[in-house]
Amino acid sequence: MLETERHRIILSAVQERPVVTVADLCALTGVSEATVRRDIAQLHVAKKLRRVRGGAEAIAPPQFVGINARPFAVNETLHIAQKRAIAQAAVDLCEDGDAIIINGGTTTFQMVHPLTTKRLQVFTNSFPIAEHLLKQSKNTVLLPAGAIYREQNIILSPFDADGSNHFYARRMFMGCRGLGPLGLMEGDPLLVQAEQKLIGQADELIVLADSSKFAQRSSLLLCPLNRIHTVITDDGIEDRAARMLEAAEIRLIVVEPAASDRRKRAEE
Q1: Which of 22, 148, 178, 180 has the fewest Cβ atoms within 10 angstroms?
Q2: SS3 for 222?
Q3: pLDDT digits (tens, 9 = 90+) for 110-129
Q4: What percent of the chain is predicted at pLDDT more than 90?
Q5: Residue that terminates a domain, selected from 58, 81, 103
Q6: What distance in Å separates the CA atoms of residue 156 and residue 191, rounded to the nearest whole number?
Q7: What is the mean pLDDT of the segment spanning 142-162?
Q8: What pLDDT is stored for residue 244 in this prediction?
C-alpha cells in the first residue's frame, strides 16, 4: 500500500474513535508495526494527528459521535480487487425489471459500475450508490427516510416509518462486519435495526463478503445463517468456511479477482 494511501486511512481512522492503536492501524493498512509507527511520527510532525502511547488520536476530535463502523473512506481501500469481482458476480444475478435492495457498504458500492447497463428498481440506504446510479444509469432509485451518517455514507433512521416497509424485493444484497457459525455480525445496534428491516422486505438474502470477513467477529448478531440464501466471496476462502456454508445449505459463489487487479495490488 502506498504511503499516501496509508496516511489517508490513518487520518480517517483517528476521526472515528478517541484513540486508535498501532495494532488497529496494522490491521487496516496491512503493513508492519514499524511502518505504522513511522507513519504516525510523520503525521504527528505535520500536526495532522497527535502521537500517544501505543497509537494515535485526532488533534480535534469531532463533536458528533457516529455509529460504530469504519468510515467508508477507510473500507473502500481494502481488498478492492476482491470486492470488484464479488460485485460483478452479484450483478450477474440480476435481470432487467427486477426489484432489489442494496445495503450500504464498500463491497456493495462496487455493484454500481456493472449496474449501469441494467434497468432495475433499486432501494438503497447508501448515499453514494444512489448518487452514482442516478447520474450514470437508467435504474429507478428509491431511498429510505433518515439521517445521513457522513463517515459511512449511509442513511439510517431509528424509526419504523422510514419507507422501507413499502418496498418488496426479490433479492437483497448486503455486506457485513463478519460472518461465522452463528451468522452475520455487525458492530452497531442502529445498523442492525436498519438492516433487519431491509432483510424482512426481500425473499433472498445475498451476502457479499470477501474472504477476510470469515475471520472477523463482532458483538452483535444481525441474522442467523439459515436466513442467508447465497454468499459471494473470493477464492481466498478457507475450506473450513466453505464447509460451514455447505452445512447450512447456503449457496456459495466463489470468484477470482481480475489478473490486472492482482498485479496492481502486488505492485503497491
Answers
A1: 148
A2: strand
A3: 999 999 999 999 999 999 99
A4: 53
A5: 58
A6: 7
A7: 81
A8: 96
Instruction: Please report the sign of the dihedral spanned by the C-alpha atoms of residue 173, residue 179, residue 184, residue 190.
Output: negative
Same domain flag for 121 and 233? yes
What's the CA angle centered on 91, arms 211 and 255, to 5 degrees?
30
Q: Domain of 256: which CATH number?
A: 3.40.50.1360
CA dist 183 and 206 (Å) reads: 13
d(CA 115, CA 200): 23
According to the model, what pLDDT value does residue 60 have? 74
User: Domain range holding 10?
Assistant: 3-58
Considering the domain boundaries, does residue 131 fall inside one? yes
- CA dihedral (22, 24, 28, 30) positive or negative: positive
Which helix (DSSP H) or strand (DSSP E) does residue 263 occupy? helix 259-267
| Number of domains observed in the structure of the chain | 2
267 has a pLDDT exceeding 60: no
Distance CA 103, CA 92 (A): 17
Q: Is the pLDDT of residue 103 over 70?
A: yes
Identify whether 195 is part of a domain: yes
d(CA 124, CA 91): 15
Please name which of 268, 236, 239, 227 lies closest in space to residue 254, comparing C-alpha atoms.
236
Mean pLDDT value across residues 222-226: 93
Whether residues 204 and 81 fall in one domain = yes
Q: What are phi and psi of 61, to 5 degrees?
A: -60, 145
